[in-house]
Amino acid sequence: xxxxxxxxxxxxxxxxxxxxxxxxxxxxxxxxxxxxxxxxxxxxxxxxxxxxxxxxxxxxxxxxxxxxxxxxxxxxxxxxxxxxxxxxxxxxxxxxxxxxxxxxxxxxxxxxxxxxxxxxxxxxxxxxxxxxxxxxxxxxxxxxxxxxxxxxxxxxxxxxxxxxxxxxxxxxxxxxxxxxxxxxxxxxxxxxxxxxxxxxxxxxxxxxxxxxxxxxxxxxxxxxxxxxxxxxxxxxxxxxxxxxxxxxxxxxxxxxxxx
Length: 259
Ligand SMILES: Nc1ncnc2c1ncn2[C@@H]1O[C@H](COP(=O)(O)OP(=O)(O)OP(=O)(O)O)[C@@H](O)[C@H]1O
Ligand SMILES: Cc1ncc(COP(=O)(O)O)c(N)n1
Hints:
Protein name: Hydroxymethylpyrimidine/phosphomethylpyrimidine kinase
Keywords: ATP-binding, Kinase, Nucleotide-binding, Thiamine biosynthesis, Transferase
GO molecular function, one term: hydroxymethylpyrimidine kinase activity
Domain Pyridoxamine kinase/Phosphomethylpyrimidine kinase: 11-254
Bound molecules: adenosine-5'-triphosphate, (4-amino-2-methylpyrimidin-5-yl)methyl dihydrogen phosphate
CATH class: Alpha Beta
Catalytic activity: 4-amino-2-methyl-5-(phosphooxymethyl)pyrimidine + ATP = 4-amino-2-methyl-5-(diphosphooxymethyl)pyrimidine + ADP; 4-amino-5-hydroxymethyl-2-methylpyrimidine + ATP = 4-amino-2-methyl-5-(phosphooxymethyl)pyrimidine + ADP + H(+)
CATH topology: UDP-N-acetylmuramoyl-L-alanine:D-glutamate ligase
């Protein structure tokens, strides 16, 4: 049984965060574990409150997991403060965690800030170096690169810029593009595009969390990063195509489509 650890915030409405991660991991028939970085009060229409875990308590959760059931892969999602990022980076290094997928969550689909401004540099220089792959969406890639992204060429420029400080795999997700949902992978000087037509479904809450957890599952299974992205995109496409329609805003995905 493959064991996957998700380090992320809780979304009480079940669409994103740790809930999306655990649903994805379970759908892959793997064993999911969670280190909760924050409780959020949110739903499909917005985020109404955030209550962060203390760094000490996050460290205790990490010790409890790593000292007992060692994960085959780790997915990191929302970690909003500098001190939390620091403690997570220290613990992942101490336990020599492997197959780390970092989704640098900054803003929710509904528009709320999930990363403090003063934590961006810590994320870039302490957590990113530990990751095998980072999966920014377009606004996150703009923040990491300082480049305004309007089209696919800008995505390539941003990836090149980010790669100056990060040697791992960079997947810039194109879900926010107008006319396609093409994602760009950059690694070792090479660009690879994962082209996908936009599925007519505005219920995309949790797509980023789902994609990054699904990548972690395939990495744990021994697939390469490029293969893992391909598998994860297939999983996500199935969940999007199912057209679940819940809530009054941008609704969540259905993870039961392939069971
Ligand atoms: N309408 C769509 N049709 C097909 N694929 C989509 C669609 N929307 C998003 N995706 C895919 O979902 C994944 C997440 O993309 P996106 O750029 O929306 O990330 P995100 O903003 O982090 O997600 P989230 O909505 O969870 O914040 C990408 O692989 C993207 O291509
Ligand atoms: C706890 C948590 N983690 C991540 C997201 C981002 O997901 P989305 O952009 O789909 O709102 C979120 N809204 N909440």
